[in-house]
Fold this sequence. Notes:
This protein has 1 helix and 2 strands, in the order H-E-E. The chain is mainly α.
Amino acid sequence: MDQTQILALIGAAIIGIVATILILRRQRQQEEEAEATRDNPFAVSTEGMKRCPNCGFGNLVTDATCSSCGRSLPG
């Protein structure tokens, strides 16, 4: 093998490695985005709770202030 063939093989190997890294990075980003938008499979019960009009957090009926934002709850 002469020097130009060796350089061509090294260049092709570098291009392959860079392409593989970019593909894996893109797949990881797509998986993270899919996980962030995935709905929770468990139902949430709001029975015995009242929602804060300011932040929407569910609080116990007996609470006078919101556990999340600290605002006064109606009722």
